[in-house]
TrEMBL record:
Residues 4-61 form the HTH lysR-type domain. InterPro entries: LysR_HTH_N, LysR_subst-bd, WH-like_DNA-bd_sf, WH_DNA-bd_sf. It comes from Rhizobium paknamense. Keywords: DNA-binding, Transcription, Transcription regulation. Belongs to the LysR transcriptional regulatory family. GO terms for molecular function: DNA binding. This is DNA-binding transcriptional LysR family regulator. Pfam families: HTH_1 (PF00126), LysR_substrate (PF03466).
Amino acid sequence: MTLITLKQMEAIYWIVQLGTFERAAARLNTTQSAISKRVQELEAMTGLAVFDRNQRGAKLTEKGEHLLALGQEMLALHDRVLDLKSSEETPAHRLRLGVTELSAMTWFPRLISKIRDTFPRVTLEPYVGTSRTLENMLRDSELDLIVVPDVFVGEDITYVRLADVSNVWMARPGLVETREALTLEELAGHPAVLQGSQSGTGLFYNRWMRSQGLVFDQALYSDNLMAILGLTVAGVGISYLPRQCFRPLVDEGKLVVIPTRPVLPPIPYSAGYRNDRPTAFITAITDLMCDTCDFSRQLQS
């Protein structure tokens, strides 16, 4: 495919500015025939008549005027690219960042503040969704970076470990006798509110429960963490929830921790980006995540 060149656009620009092909050639330190050739090549490529041959002088056609306006944008962009070498200005970036509910309700607001302080010209597009949705959006180039439980396998995505999140079984006070640790068999006799297949935490623990032979007779599934929390506080069933994040609800007497043997394994959380899109900017944001990530407290600022 033949591309429109900056030299062709330069020729059009200076012909119009100086009024003749001859003056434009002198300005660009070339010959009049070279300038004419650039114009002819551009007209052949675009199928447009740039100059009106029925008029005296270098008068643009209506399409030629539109072409010149676009050409000036090309030349201005070219100058900006050349200015990057000497410019000390922080470059502008666009960041489409996806996180799950747990990140959004804990350390994500503090991360946003750090990103803005470090990259003042950044345009942020945050998205909160389930792990499965975020992973699909990353693969489809709809997101640049995601934070999810590290449960997905794929050679096309790089995952950087951020933190582990400890979960425990919780319930409304009085729903479960908790004088001593329950076996998984005893736990299975209670109704449960569990995370579903769109949730990274749900995928992780569903696999673990299958490996332990833990099957609930009564289970309600949801991919919404806040819905699960509300149902658990209301006494609909037991659920696994992040210990530190929801400790205030335990301190307030709205939830109790159910000791079990064995205990739940921690959930590994990672930042993920596509292998074909690595940049210094994405690496810098991932480093900020490593420094900021903290799932222990809600609504951090």
